[in-house]
Amino acid sequence: MSPAKSHPLIRQDWIDVGEGHHLFLAQYGDPQGIPVLYLHGGPGAGCNPLELRLFIDRGFHIYLLDQRAAGRSKPCGELANNDFPSLVKDIERVRHWAGVEAWCLLGGSFGATLGYLYSCVYPERVLSQIYWGMFIPSYEGMQWLYGRGGAAQIFSGEYRQFAAGHGESLEQLFDHFETGFSHQDAEVRRSSVWRWLRWELALAVPGFELSEALAEQGGALARVELHYARNQYFGGYQLMKKVGGDLICPTIILQGELDWVCPQRLVDEFLVEHGPSLLRSRLVKGGYHTLADSKMCRAVAEAVTQMGRYLAAGKEDK
Fold first, then answer.
1. Over the chain, what is the mean pLDDT?
2. pTM for the predicted model, two decimal places
């Protein structure tokens, strides 16, 4: 049975969160089921109904939320009033709008970072959470992803194509791409977006070929990602360090053994220094960064199934 048939659409809405932004929210599954908010990566990637495949069992009320400027949220690709603290507040606004007392969180990459921070700022609003490929928005995390001394040492040929001679510093690299993304020549804009997306795909899903259609759709994603990176994620890492130990809900963090975007080492170093005393990430042997990898997708789906059955059993016991 397809994910859409197992978890039928309940409703779709655009929620006005102020500052010129309207967030697209799609609800699926059982209106009386366990509430789960799915947080996409990027920032700026948007949700895809294919992600419903993570929910093997029924009995979930699934919320797929497109963050500011992402997916079908409006205006698409908008950078004004688009920052990390606003995204955290948006989750709480959406919770109030939906009338949910507390929910589970599920997300990958930047979505994992966003959800983790929300669960520390609003601990009483999160029942349980599962993350994968969690990104640490520190200077070291950015250097690993975009600098010359991190993943570039493993994917040297791909990095040369990505940086095109502008990788002496992160500032120089980001200036180069900002100029390219806004260039008056359409071919220069297209080429800049293409190089940005190809680099990320080379790390996330090695061997995956970027199509013209995907590159065209990814223009907004590339611009939003650059906006966050060149602004050091708007103090998100400093806030994570401040409140990271306040996490109280059951939490699983899955990191792929072959995750070249967000290495497990950076995640566990953060957790050791700033997280709850007993929380560490779990290694997915042979797993990559995204759900496009079958090993990672299967590991996340199994964790979601266990979470749902645990919460359902607890609900029945009351």
1. 94
2. 0.96
